């Protein structure tokens, strides 16, 4: 399916924002289509010997679904080279082993998801979630009720997709005007990630075609690889399960702040703008100079990640990079920038990254639970200390997401960060 000439998002933005800043942003994005800047490489970096002389090619390995690769990575695009001060050192690259003294909390959430009648059991889960959000912004959830068979089906679908020939994946390539689909050139903090990904969002009216106007959001519309109905059905089923689980987690977070459980529901509902992403991190010839995903904070409310057993996801805590150890069947949860704003910094969106790996490819599946695009996020009154000012001005989620996507898809200068919304 081809994207209809980029007009749809413009039209939609016009409706949502009455031709204001966001529309101009979209137009800028479209202008930026003429080619990615090559100026982004910070001087003083060490160039890997494997770099292509022309410095442009990026050969991404394709898997056959069993961890074997149909092509090996031959070159590192200079755009992937992380500035020296943000690379993994030998010490922090090994921080996901058991010798680390502190680790991301693991929380049994069965009482929460089973709607236990034992209120004290629910309170204990809520308390642990609140403490984890405060100290880490991360936790792992076990006994979450999502069947292992669904996780296995998801893992198989993901491996099968990334094993497809590059031309086939490119048929559903995302673009400046449609954020949904395949990409192997995502930027994080102006550095190209060592990964391939596939993104999709909610289909508001599943009986209508994906590109029907009723199914469009500011992100565009879903694109699915042709002739692979199982891929779509497994992913959409998983998406719905993630929406349900995220809603419960958000209820726990609300309760941990002393709010009504359903406090955040008003911002989500049927028109939530969540994103599901399949990530494939190919084997990398030189993980000392590149990252699977460069350091970043997630933009939305919360993220629920399923990861395989390879490891490499790290969170910055107490000035140290700490690995999030893979636990079979567990979900890794982290909060995002909108939660930081709502809670007025009580829960901070954590900086995290994914290491590249020389020996094993890695697969992960984050589900980014995001509010509806009409949402303006502002500090919740109950989270602001009496007699003090809220730390943030209201943030238009639509604009924030759009600006972040601009940074993901093309190098147009500094990516938007939540610190820019601090009241000053
Ligand atoms: O691959 C992972 O475990 C996490 C990826 C991530 O942080 C992201 O896509 O925002
Ligand atoms: Fe992330």
From TrEMBL:
Record bears the keyword NAD: no
Domain Fe2OG dioxygenase residue range list: 271-371
Protein name: Fe2OG dioxygenase domain-containing protein
InterPro entries reported in the protein's UniProt record: DIOX_N (IPR026992), IPNS-like_FE2OG_OXY (IPR044861), IPNS-like_sf (IPR027443), Iron_ascorbate_oxido_reductase (IPR050231), Oxoglu/Fe-dep_dioxygenase_dom (IPR005123)
Pfam families: 2OG-FeII_Oxy (PF03171), DIOX_N (PF14226)
Residues annotated as transmembrane: none
Family: Belongs to the iron/ascorbate-dependent oxidoreductase family.
One GO MF term: metal ion binding
Phylogenetic classification of the source organism: Eukaryota, Viridiplantae, Streptophyta, Charophyceae, Charales
Keywords, ordered alphabetically: Iron, Metal-binding, Oxidoreductase
